[in-house]
């Protein structure tokens, strides 16, 4: 979900789309202090911050052993001499749209035609060639 949202934000940014300006009412410091249910006297500050890196997929303590969970499979890009290859390790139900991905090649470096090698859960395979920019084929399931 986050990747789809990030891809949408990137696509909107590249197209120059801007969100409408929302006029918020002015809030005085007194109004803010009167409406916060927090006692500043109970705030403890520390000059030392300890970072505990964790892998995507859950918290380190949820498994009971204290060990970090195994890393999840991630899709990736490979760049060949004449083309780019998107390797999908996470199962998909629709075609991949390259502009939804922030770490991929620029739109200008991609040709219109793509070749998709489909591998289904039953082991059968199919190859499809089409224009990924055509909205009929872009994300068709």
Would you give an account of this structure?
This protein is α+β, with helices and mostly antiparallel strands. The protein has a domain at 73-141. The longest helix has 13 residues, at 2-14. The chain contains three helices and four strands. Strand 3 (113-119) and strand 4 (125-131) form a beta hairpin. It is 16% helix and 16% strand.
At a glance:
It contains three helices and four strands; from the N terminus they run ααββββα. The chain is an alpha+beta fold and 141 residues long.
What structural class is derived from the secondary structure elements?
Answer: alpha+beta
Fraction of helical residues: 10-25%
- Radius of gyration based on Cα positions: 23 Å
Strand order of the largest sheet: 1-2
List the helices and strands in order. HHEEEEH
Q: What amount of the residues lies in strands?
A: 15-25%
* Count of helical regions: 3
Average pLDDT, rounded to a whole number, is: 73
The poorly predicted ranges are 53-66
What's the count of strands?
A: 4
Distance linking N and C termini: 17 Å
Shape: elongated
Note the main sheet: 2 strands, antiparallel
Secondary-structure blueprint of this entry?
Elements: H1 2-14, H2 29-34, E1 76-79, E2 84-87, E3 113-119, E4 125-131, H3 135-138
Antiparallel strand pairs: 1-2, 3-4
Task: State the main characteristics.
two-stranded antiparallel sheet; elongated; 3 helices; 4 strands; alpha+beta; 141 residues
């Amino acid at each position: 979900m986050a990747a789809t949202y990030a891809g949408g934000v990137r696509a909107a940014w590249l197209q120059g789309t801007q969100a409408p300006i929302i006029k918020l009412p002015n809030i005085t410091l007194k109004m803010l202090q009167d409406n916060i249910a927090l006692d500043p006297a109970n705030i403890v500050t520390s000059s030392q911050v300890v970072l505990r890196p964790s892998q995507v997929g859950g918290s380190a303590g949820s498994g009971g052993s204290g060990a970090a969970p195994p890393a999840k499979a991630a899709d990736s890009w490979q760049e060949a001499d004449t083309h780019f290859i998107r390797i999908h390790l996470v199962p998909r139900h629709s075609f991949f749209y390259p502009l939804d991905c922030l770490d991929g090649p620029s739109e200008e470096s991609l040709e219109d035609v793509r070749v998709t090698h489909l591998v289904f859960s039953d082991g059968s395979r199919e190859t499809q060639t089409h224009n990924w920019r055509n909205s009929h084929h872009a994300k068709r399931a």
